[in-house]
């Protein structure tokens, strides 16, 4: 009797794993870019009561929540952010500010990364 072969890995997980890896790469690239531009990275993948914020950074007295999107086009990336997600990010940003005693200004940015590594920083895209 032949030994049992392991069950094939779920094929639907492969695209999800690639997307996760691409997202992490894009976040790392954005953190590097932000540091060059004078931002201080406070947290990555911060989990607040509203949901996850990809990058929390500060520049001067401005607390910034940054949503990172890795897509072929900027338009695809910007349209990938739903109003519900915007609200959750704003809620988590406010919770982080309250927890850390931040009394300055806050904003929410979006950074888009293309497969070729091109970065676009969209400042103050929306407020919660």
UniProtKB/TrEMBL annotation:
This is UPF0102 protein TH25_01340. It comes from the Bacteria. InterPro entries: Restrct_endonuc-II-like (IPR011335), tRNA_endonuc-like_dom_sf (IPR011856), UPF0102_YraN-like (IPR003509). SUPFAM superfamilies: Restriction endonuclease-like. The lineage of its organism: Bacteria, Pseudomonadati, Pseudomonadota, Alphaproteobacteria, Rhodospirillales. One of its GO terms (molecular function) is nucleic acid binding. Belongs to the UPF0102 family. HAMAP family: UPF0102.
């Amino acid at each position: 009797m032949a030994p049992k072969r392991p069950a094939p890995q779920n094929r639907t997980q492969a695209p999800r794993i690639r997307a996760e890896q691409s997202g992490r790469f894009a976040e790392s690239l954005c953190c590097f870019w932000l540091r060059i531009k004078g931002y201080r990275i406070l947290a990555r993948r911060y989990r607040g009561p509203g949901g996850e914020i990809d990058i929390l950074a500060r520049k001067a007295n401005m607390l910034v929540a940054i949503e990172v999107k890795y897509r072929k086009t900027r338009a695809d990336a910007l349209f990938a952010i739903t109003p519900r997600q915007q609200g959750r990010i704003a809620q988590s940003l406010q919770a982080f500010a309250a927890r850390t005693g931040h009394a300055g200004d806050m904003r929410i940015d979006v950074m888009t990364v293309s497969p070729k590594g091109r970065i676009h920083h969209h400042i103050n895209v929306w407020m919660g």
